[in-house]
């Protein structure tokens, strides 16, 4: 029940323990070490959505149909439904930004950085379908993401503004009780929130809250601040689950080589027909 | 960088002295000496932090040193002083009128022409000779005693990782580094070897995992503590690493290497054993042993020390900014188009003459 209550109120304090086994601790803090992944469809669309035929549609004689490049995938190319992870349901875009999001949807295939295997940025890295591993000690908190081999290290001493923008940003952490609060800045405007065209500017600040509810469940919340794109700060929240047993091994997804035909195929000495 | 001068400095420092062969792992205890490595909250030797293996010392010993493992003070001064001079000279103001065509055609380390413009602002190969237990070393390899790779078995071929057949024809024909799949050289290893720049690593430890973040191409080596090697025949990038602790030492054993990242030609039966031992507040002794009986009759081994880095690792987003691969392929296509146009132009007068004759 506590879980349900928290889900309905993303801004509410995380519960230290709802169910399950005891929470291991290291350095006096909850130990998040392990392999984790979501069980939602946030990477498809962080807003509430029904299932649909494809990530990019084109007008059909009766209803929109999948873009030509997706048709061959059939049902595999369709989008699974989800309740969304945005508090209140809709992202508070400015009118101009909302128009851009809609345009992004129309040009999904050429614009989503995931299509090109670019680094995912934060928060998206945390809710892609692929897992990530946290390696935590008394002084270190490292995220190693399976997707594209992305990585980020939490700095527990604030070095000041990021000296240079990066895809994964600069993450500065502090403990508030048993919750790890991470402020992420210095990200480029090249990353998206999902496969639905939801985007941000290069001035975005993300404040994440990581709380272990029990040994196998993380409550994850993130507040998004980006006045250039949104009319107010907004929040996402979700559960992230520990992978157990044989599923708890991070694999490699170096997708760079998988997109070479897409990105460079036309430059082959003999382009494929 | 004036790489030619850099190479000359290294080679010119070589003179002979006493041999001092080392045995794998034997010097760990000695090097550890009175220093007591800190333990982490998991009861493991604490290896965490940001580390660098940048150095002027190289994997294989220049032949001039023979079997001598340690440099003299004069040799060290010559190399380190020379490197310092080179960097100072490189930092001096340049004549803005100098063009790439004014650069030397060959400037060593594989650079030529415009490639010689890779000046010191872009590189960070270290400024000191590698010290192991305080000794300035002539090479990383300590066994065989000449500090060089053992002879290859008959029939073993070692492809040059920088030279590819069908260069420029397809993305898959290019080097892994040009494709942003791994670093050039062998930064992530294992064996982890320093490069011309970005020789930074971060080590993080949890109870059952050691993660080594490699700056180059943001690779992360995940070492499974207390696990067994996979037996499914799959060969992940950087191989399949398992580890355990022996007193103050982290031991890592890696097998199942992929062919794409063969270590000096070895991959199929390659086994690399690494030993990480904290020997000082700011030093980790790194020892390695390389075995592949299908490639070499005997194992080879060596050692160096990581030094603590003051800074943190910044993101090396290689693929996201990889304009070079597109440029290489597009350049090759442009060359082909230019060659075809030239051929057509050369053939055109003859064709015209023929037509005239017919008329």
Question: Which labels suit this protein?
Answer:
heterodimer, A: nine-stranded mixed β-barrel, two-stranded antiparallel sheet, 5 helices, 12% helix, 25% strand, B: 359 residues, nine-stranded mixed beta barrel, 4 helices, globular
Tell me the Rg of chain A in angstroms. 19 Å
Low-confidence stretches of chain B: 1-32, 355-359
Which strands sit side by side, in order, in the main sheet of chain B? 1-5-6-7-8-9-10-11-12
Distance between the termini of chain B: 63 Å
Given helix and strand content, the structural type of chain A is: alpha+beta
Low-confidence stretches of chain A: 1-19
| Separate helix tally of chain A | 5
Count the E strands of chain A: 13
Broad structural category of chain B: alpha+beta
Which outline of chain A best applies? globular
**Rounded average pLDDT of chain B:** 86
Order of helices and strands of chain A: HEEEEEHHHEEEEEEEEH
Name the overall outline of chain B: globular
pLDDT averaged over residues of chain A: 93
Helix content of chain A: 10-25%
Largest interface: A-B, 42 and 44 residues
What is the terminal separation of chain A in angstroms?
57 Å
Q: Which sheet architecture does the biggest sheet of chain B show? A: 9 strands, mixed, barrel
**Rg of chain B, please?**
24 Å
Please provide the ordered H/E string of secondary-structure elements of chain B. HHEHEEEEEEEEEEEH
């Amino acid at each position: 029940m506590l879980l349900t209550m928290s889900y309905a109120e993303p801004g509410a304090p995380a519960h230290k323990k709802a169910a399950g086994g005891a929470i291991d601790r290291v350095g006096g803090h909850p130990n998040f070490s392990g392999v984790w992944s979501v069980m939602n469809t946030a990477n498809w669309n962080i807003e509430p959505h029904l299932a649909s035929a494809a990530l990019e549609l084109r007008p059909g004689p009766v209803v929109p149909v999948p873009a030509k490049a997706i048709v061959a995938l059939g049902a595999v190319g369709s989008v699974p439904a989800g309740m969304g992870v945005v508090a209140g349901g809709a992202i508070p875009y400015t009118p101009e930004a909302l128009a851009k999001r809609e345009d992004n949807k129309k040009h999904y295939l050429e614009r989503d950085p995931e299509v090109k295997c670019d680094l995912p940025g934060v928060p998206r890295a945390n809710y892609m379908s692929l897992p990530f591993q946290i390696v935590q000690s008394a002084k270190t908190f490292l995220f190693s993401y399976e997707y594209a081999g992305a990585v980020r290290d939490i700095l527990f001493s604030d070095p000041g503004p990021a000296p240079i923008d990066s895809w994964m940003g600069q993450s500065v952490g502090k403990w508030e009780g048993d919750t790890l609060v991470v402020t992420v800045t210095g990200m480029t405007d090249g990353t998206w929130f999902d496969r639905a065209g939801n985007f941000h500017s290069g001035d975005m600040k993300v404040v994440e809250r990581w709380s272990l509810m029990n040994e196998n469940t993380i409550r994850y919340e993130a507040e998004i601040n980006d006045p250039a794109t949104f009319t107010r700060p907004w929040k996402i929240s979700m559960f992230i689950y520990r992978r157990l047993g044989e599923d708890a091994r991070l694999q490699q997804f170096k997708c760079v080589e998988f997109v070479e035909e897409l990105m460079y195929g036309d430059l082959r000495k003999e382009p494929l027909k | 960088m004036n790489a030619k001068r850099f190479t000359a400095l290294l080679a010119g420092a070589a003179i002979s002295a006493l041999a001092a062969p080392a045995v794998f792992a034997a010097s760990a205890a000695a090097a550890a000496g009175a220093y007591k490595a800190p333990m982490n909250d998991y009861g493991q030797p604490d290896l965490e932090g940001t580390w660098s293996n940048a150095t002027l010392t190289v994997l294989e010993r220049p032949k001039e040193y023979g079997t001598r493992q340690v440099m003299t003070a004069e040799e060290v001064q010559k190399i380190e002083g020379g490197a310092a001079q080179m960097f100072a000279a490189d930092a001096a103001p340049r004549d803005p009128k100098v063009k790439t065509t004014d650069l030397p055609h060959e400037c060593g380390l594989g650079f030529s022409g415009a490639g010689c413009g890779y000046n010191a602002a872009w590189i960070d190969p270290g400024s000191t000779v590698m010290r192991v237990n305080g000794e300035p070393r002539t090479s990383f390899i300590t066994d065989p005693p000449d500090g060089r790779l053992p002879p290859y078995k008959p029939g073993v071929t070692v492809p040059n990782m920088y030279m590819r057949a069908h260069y420029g024809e397809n993305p898959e024909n290019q080097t892994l580094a040009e494709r942003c799949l791994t670093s050039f050289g062998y930064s992530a290893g294992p064996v982890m070897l320093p490069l011309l720049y970005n020789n930074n690593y971060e080590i993080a430890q949890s109870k059952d995992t050691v993660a080594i973040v490699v700056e180059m191409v943001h690779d992360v080596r995940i070492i499974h503590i207390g696990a067994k090697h996979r037996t499914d025949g799959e060969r992940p990038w950087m191989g399949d690493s398992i580890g355990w602790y022996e007193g103050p030492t982290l031991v890592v054993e890696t097998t199942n290497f992929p062919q794409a990242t063969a270590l000096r030609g070895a991959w199929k039966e390659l086994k690399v054993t690494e030993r990480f031992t904290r020997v000082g507040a700011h030093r980790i002794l790194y020892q390695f042993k390389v075995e592949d009986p299908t490639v070499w009759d005997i194992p080879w081994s060596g050692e160096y020390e990581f030094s603590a880095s003051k800074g943190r690792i910044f993101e090396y987003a290689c693929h996201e900014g990889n304009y070079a691969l597109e440029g290489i392929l597009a350049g090759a296509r442009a060359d082909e188009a230019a060659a075809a146009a030239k051929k057509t132009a050369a053939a055109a007068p003859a064709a015209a003459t023929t037509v005239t004759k017919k008329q």
